[in-house]
Amino acid sequence: MTKLKLFGLIGICFFIVLSASAENYTGDFLTNGIGARALGLGGAYVSIADDATATYWNPAGIAGGTHKYQVCMMHATRRSGLGAFSYVSGIAKFIPHLTVGVSWIRAGIDDIPIYHDVPAFDPAISAEQRKETARYRPTEEDFIPSGYLNDSENAFVFSLATRLAISQSWWNNFGRDSIPPEFLFGINAKGIVQRLSGVGELDEITSLYNNYGSSGYGFDAGMLFRLPDMNALFGLDNVGGFAFGVNLQDISQTTLTWNTVPAQKESIPANLNIGVAFFSKLLFNREMILTYQWQERSGGQTHLGIEYQLSPPLALRVGMRDSRLTSGIGIQLKQFHLDYALLIGDLINTHFLSVLWTF
Asked: What's the mean per-residue pLDDT of the chain?
């Protein structure tokens, strides 16, 4: 076995051990967040989510819209185009008090090239030997991949949610004209599949990667309380309203089992998200949202966001995702919502595009 193959084998073993021991990074692709509107607000969305992206942020929120059907699609290239991150979801209100949602989240790197051993790069060969012997010098064929690896991480989510609202007639007993509060509850059941697969002629080292992966399932539960305006409670006019959201992800942990021999297991720890949002038209009679969210993951992270509607079809957003700045814009075109978000990173920036279709 050449040194190149030996180093490759050591790297694979290290990767397997790291996967089994690094609990904080298990299912890390699920921490990216989805939906350009939510990401433009710094990920502070647990108390706002009322569209198809709520299958990720707070499953209770899919019951909050007045629409019967809604579809969302998002795509982003990460790490300067080396990786892709995509999301597709759809929700449907089949009966008045039950909303169903399905979604698919995928992160991956495709077409990772695999090369056979190149003798010219063998450290045992001296510079003089390369100069004197043609077979020790690289050729054009040495740089043609013998095969490719595809890294794919997927989550498939099924959501159910219901909505309970205080009747308008009972709420009118407070003596003021206002919209009654509502309570929303939802759950997620999700399956996670991660795979490394090979394409082409794989040598004895790279073939160890082929079909290496893991799978598992988990559950989330969310609650959303919305008080549309404060007129009835405090006698205040045109001030706005509040919303409070809670989402507990990976209840009792989500366990992934790797298809190694012996099988290795790792867990995604439970993650609590709590948030509050304030909706108002106090500033120039334009809709404005101030939102805050705290999540338990990684020792506790803070998310902040502001959305301001410049005109009925155009909204501007800015936020903080822990210590990283985010921004975005949203445009409404009839039944379509087009959103863009920019996440400023330490080394590179990530652009997110999403479209929301209501019908």
From this structure: 85
